[in-house]
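In response to reviewer comment 3 from the previous cycle, which asked for concrete evidence that the modeling workflow produces usable outputs, we include below a single protein chain processed end to end. The sequence was submitted unchanged, and the resulting structure tokens are shown without manual editing.
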Amino acid sequence: MSARNTVKSIQDIMRQDVGVDGDAQRLSQLCWMFFLKIIDDQDQQLEVMQDNYQSPIPEKYQWRSWAADPEGITGELLMTFINEELFPALKELPAVGSNASRARVVKSVFEDAYNYMKSGQLLRQVINRISGVDFNDLAERKHFGDIYEQLLNDLQSAGNAGEYYTPRAVTAFMVDRIDPKPGQILFDPSCGTGGFLTCSIRHMRDRYVKKVEDEQALQAGLRAVEKKQLPHMLCVTNMLLHGIEDPSFVRHDNTLARPYISYGQSDRVDIILTNPPFGGREEDGIESNFPAHFRTKETADLFLALFIRLLKPGGRAAIVLPDGSLFGEGVKTRLKEHLLAECNLHTIVRLPNSVFKPYASIGTNLLFFEKGDPTQEIWFYEHHVPEGQKAYSMTRPIKVEHLNGCVEWWGGAERENRQETEQAWKVTIDEIKARGYNLDFKNPHTVADDHGDPEELLAKLEESELQTASLRDQLKGILAEALLR
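The workflow returned the following structure tokens.
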């Protein structure tokens, strides 16, 4: 059975179970089972390759012990084992010994994981389907990785779960423009399900990984944090499916909960690629971790302050921010002033409101900047929805090729020979300062619609109002006569 058919058959089985409600729960259920099977497959391979290797998971709870036999425990016995033995044991797994980091990964995934299925018979059917997959087969793992990415895409329609997903066309474009390389430290401080990480991994493997040392440098340079349990679990499993041997770098934590001043030289990174949460507000007390002039409950603002601090000199970033961050005042103004003084904000790509539909319908922007030299000018590029299409949607989302025009305009690695076009323009730092650091610059090449002469329009409006009043009076007269008859 193909990977796609295997996943489809698993979803069909889960839909029969009364305990699993919706795509988000189905994916969460699938995720922890995939995770245990992948870990067990890796463990069996490591046991052959390394002397004295021992899995961090006790033998009783390894996939091969309780799940691999298609005639194994089922029904109530299976449900009791999973709910009362397996989950409690993995939630409290001790992180000790040579495999402490691997044990921490298992424990972090199961900290808030949940078995939604209620039928032991249906659960046994799902387990048997998963047992038929060999995740040590590179081709098979790649196929499942691709399908998993599509499942994450489908989360866009799963209520709040959609907040964890950035359109892959956007992540691929940002990664391509930043061009990460093995050996560089790449950080996503709000990684969601790992879209920027997987795009970066593919980018580096396609372009730069030529030998084992390159792959080792690639994996050693990854850093990520995710605050919420579900996307953290999805991200860790995503990393395993994309051939990352030790996904313990994906921490289940809140990046903003650590005091701003505590981030020192050892925490500096070469690259930040992320879509920080925006529109949300942090819990009370988080803002006190930041200097007084940057304090706010607005999550995106706190992240921006942290990005500037975390980049190494010469480090580069590509981030997603809403329109409000460009024109906002108060703390937002101080942040923009700080950003332009500490970094070269060289490019802002303005996206239409529909890119992040259905779970967000606000204008967003891609900001590209480098730590070191202050900003002297900013280039803006306005991305348009393809001709013949009014907006992006679930059925007609943004695609990689839609951003080819921006890639062609970009001007190479050094951004040389950029030209103003109908979609591109630049502004100087003096123009920005004159506007009080309002970065909400509209396209000067857009011709405003001609709605006519204001005086003529007012005259027509008054004439229409008089006609309406006259008709209303006539109607009143007709009704009055009718009542007298």
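The first helix runs from residue 3 to 15. We consider this sufficient to address the reviewer's concern, and the full set will be provided in the supplementary archive.
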